[in-house]
Each structure stands twice: as C-alpha cells, then as structure tokens.
Design a protein that fits this description.
With 91 residues, this protein is mainly β. It is built from no helices and eight strands. It has a three-stranded antiparallel sheet with strand order 2-3-8, with no helix packed on it. Strand 2 (20-21) and strand 3 (26-30) form a beta hairpin.
C-alpha cells in the first residue's frame, strides 16, 4: 500500500507497518511494528518519521534508516541473459 507522508494527507484505513520505503530508495524500519490508525498523518522531519494523530498527538518513531536498493558495481559482469523455459512461452 502506498502511504503519503506529507503531514497533511490522512491514512485511508488502518495499517500495521514494519517498514516504510521512501521514493529515493531509503527505508525506515521502526524498532517494532507500528499500528497506524485511519486518519493518522505521516511526516518526515529531518531523519525522523513522525506520526500525527487526531487531537494533535504526535509520535516520533524510533527506528533505523537504510538503503534498500543497490547499484550493481561496474567491475562485475552483466546479468546473464534470460533462458528459454522448455514448454513455456517463446521469447
């Protein structure tokens, strides 16, 4: 499910989150899974992820950021070509 973390868009439904991917390839993994209620709003502030609840309650989530996407090093050989599977669809 795609969540918008702009601080003003409420979540359409409740979700249980164990990781949130940012558009630039970074992932925020909370210290423990977090239950986000319908109507909660998410916002990135510096290196922190903040949950804004109805009534002005604010929760700064504790967790780790890491890079999920990896670029294949130039010194490694390219990926092997796709192989035809017998009985499968022709390439």
């Amino acid at each position: 499910m795609r969540l918008i973390a702009d601080g003003s868009t409420p979540l359409p439904r409740a979700v249980l989150v164990d990781a949130l991917e940012h558009d630039d390839g970074y992932t925020f993994e909370p210290a423990s899974p977090v239950f986000l209620a319908a109507g909660d709003r998410l916002r990135f502030e510096g290196g922190a992820l903040v949950v804004l609840r109805d009534g002005g309650v604010r929760h700064d989530l504790v967790g780790d950021w890491y890079w999920r996407c990896r670029v294949r090093p130039a010194h490694r050989s390219p990926l092997p070509p796709a192989r035809h599977t017998p009985g499968g669809t022709p390439l």
